[in-house]
Specification:
The chain is an alpha/beta fold and about 325 residues long. The chain folds into two domains: about 10-215, Spore Coat Polysaccharide Biosynthesis Protein SpsA, Chain A (Alpha-Beta Complex), CATH 3.90.550.10; about 225-310, no CATH class. About 40% of the residues lie in helices and about 20% in strands. The chain contains twelve helices and nine strands. The strands form two sheets. Strands 3-2-1-4-8 form a five-stranded mixed beta sheet, with helices on both faces. Strands 5, 6, 7 and 9 form a four-stranded mixed beta sheet that branches. Helix 1 links the parallel strand 1 and strand 2. Helix 8 (about 225-240) runs antiparallel to helix 9, helix 8 packs parallel to helix 11 (about 270-285) and helix 10 packs antiparallel against helix 11. The protein is globular. The chain starts with 11 loop residues before the first strand and ends in a 21-residue tail after the last helix.
């Protein structure tokens, strides 16, 4: 795409991590194909067991497909796409969940907003559910349940966190912040990354005039899953590049003892053991997590080179 003055417009690479992508391929990739602003697309497939790869090969030859023989997890699969964006001199990356899609006039406004607001490291749309009938429940929590209405097309609304279903980022940010930390296999990667984005002085926000649709089920979280999410949360606290020694110890390593004591009073011995083990594992791995954490402060595109594949996730 060339502007009227002959200059080339900024290049955007959309990165989609797929695992059994089949139910959403048409809506997700179709929305990118219909985008008014052009974007190249790379799909990193995490060893899907359905017809994802076959469908991509048959119907979406314009998509670059990277096939992994094993499930790399969300962060490490995205890192492959981020590395391509740096190596091939793209200007922006757009991280899009496989179960999500956008409207045709979404990417163009992001490019303009990013150019007008270079202090923003991550830009996202308003997140709606898959039917478009209401806000995505997680997004609603991030923004306090109220959606600001702005008449200014140049306006961005700053938030403390926004999940990685739709992340639009300048590649200059990748060159400084790097990729997702290999400490996290699935869940927690985006929390850790936002911590690092903020460490380098960037802001995070969403554009009220743009919309994204995230087709995920909104249902109560089973207790076992909530326990796993708690454990990952403690890891994000210990790994937080902005956190003090006190916050990492009190909010991360010692924090599991609170639910452990509650479980003890209720006679839930399996939960007691789970949280005590979580605390013990974080203490045992503390020096290792700290070393990875410190590597994030060097102003380099960490985790985007093969050497960092040696870093192991704390929990799979």
């Amino acid at each position: 795409m060339t502007l009227q003055n002959g200059a080339q417009c900024p290049r955007v690479l959309t990165i989609i991590v797929s695992y059994n992508f089949e139910p959403w391929i048409e809506r997700c990739l179709g929305s990118l194909e219909q985008s008014h602003y052009p974007t190249d697309v790379v799909v990193v497939d995490n060893a899907s067991t359905d017809r994802t790869v076959e469908i991509l090969a048959e119907k979406y030859r314009w998509v670059r497909l990277l096939r992994s023989q094993r499930n790399l997890g969300f962060g490490q699969a995205n890192n492959l796409g981020m590395k391509i964006a740096i190596d091939e001199n793209y200007d922006y990356v757009f991280l899009l969940n496989q179960d999500a899609w956008i409207e045709p006039d979404t990417i163009g406004p992001w490019v303009e907003l990013s150019q007008q607001n270079p202090e923003y490291g991550v830009i996202s749309p308003v997140h709606f559910n898959g039917q478009g009938s209401r806000l995505d429940s997680s997004f609603a929590r991030y923004i306090g349940g109220k959606l600001p209405i702005s008449s200014k097309k140049s306006a961005l609304v700053e938030v403390t966190f926004i999940n990685a279903a739709f992340w639009f980022m300048p590649v200059t940010v990748l060159r400084k912040v790097g990729g997702f930390s290999p400490l996290f296999f699935h869940y927690g990667e985006d929390v850790d990354y936002i911590h690092r984005v903020r460490y380098y002085g960037y802001r995070v926000g969403y554009a009220p005039q743009t919309k994204g649709y995230h087709d995920r089920q909104d249902r109560p979280t089973p207790r076992a899953m909530q326990m796993r999410l708690d454990r990952i949360y403690y890891l994000t606290v210990v790994a937080d590049v902005n956190g003090s020694l006190f916050s990492r110890l009190w909010g991360g390593i010692l924090a599991p003892w609170k639910p452990a004591l509650r479980a003890l009073l209720r006679g839930r011995w399996s939960e007691v053991l789970f949280y005590v083990a979580a605390s013990g594992r974080l203490l045992w791995q503390y020096s290792y997590i700290t070393a990875v954490r410190e590597s994030c402060k060097r102003g380099l595109p960490v985790f985007l080179e093969s050497i960092h594949s040696k870093i192991r996730p704390i929990w799979n």
